[in-house]
Amino acid sequence: MKTMSKLMTATATIALTVAGQAAVAKDLKYAHFQSADLSSPKHAAALAFESCVEGKTAGSIDVQIFPAGQLAGDNEVMEGLQLGTIQMAVVHDGPISAMYKPFSVLALPYLFDDQAMAWSVMDGTFGDELAADMLDKTGIRMFGAADNGVRNFTNNIRPIAEPKDMEGLKMRVMTAPVWVTLVESLGASATPVPWPELPGALQQGVVDGQENGVTNIVNASLYQNQKFVSLDGHVFSWHAYLMSDDFYQGLTEAEQVAVTQCSDIAKTIHRGMTAAQDANATTILEGKGMTVVPVSPEQKAMFREKAQPAVKEFVVGEIGEDWPNKLDAAVQAYRDQF
Length: 338
Prior knowledge:
The protein is an alpha/beta fold.
């Protein structure tokens, strides 16, 4: 009887210990802005992160995913990361640039040749230095960046093949001034609209068009109110994997390793899915009923000639020459390898 009593006592102690561990699991609220299905790169990557982190930490971190902007708007999510009320988010470049201006250097148009170059630059010294500076200035930790798609112009008025075709169009841009400069340098008028409000703005005719990658055009059903898409590829856009540093510093060393490793896995999944959609842009968007307008290298050079100097002048005026020079050096270093 004594042996049975000891066994029961030990079993009860183990149960209480396990229950106690479960009770103190750290909640990780994870926000993103794409729909909650596996065809969405952000969501597929988020689910992979959840499974990875909870597995590696044996449940000591409880990942709670809030897709489609359910938790807050994009600027509010950035503020939540800074305040620590939101633990993690995958956020597009516009809202990041609004809080941390040096990120706007990545809006320099017609800069990267392809995904291989863009990934190499962001995964190298330039990306590391940008992340370290962002952490120092904002208290937000960046684990890395995945593709938000190569950005193309869409509109519901006419085909855009050359800069002159932009004149007079009302274009939605992300909520950071650098995007206004980009669009206005090409002759269109720019209206900043937060991402969750974009479909309604197109439907109601508040704007004639917008600029986004294939993933976002499909994921938010923007094609329903946009007839033309021009494959000019003006900016290689990013989704950054961000975490409140207050939350990160409250993790154990093993938990910090887990979220870092799992972020890298999620980023890789995210990149692959988005890059595949960009590579098949014509097929995908024609399948959605859009008229795809090819842009020749000569026409692209015309866009570059008008947009790049204006945007670079704006960026230098906002953040100085240091970050643009670092980015130019990183791009040149990549090209020098070949």
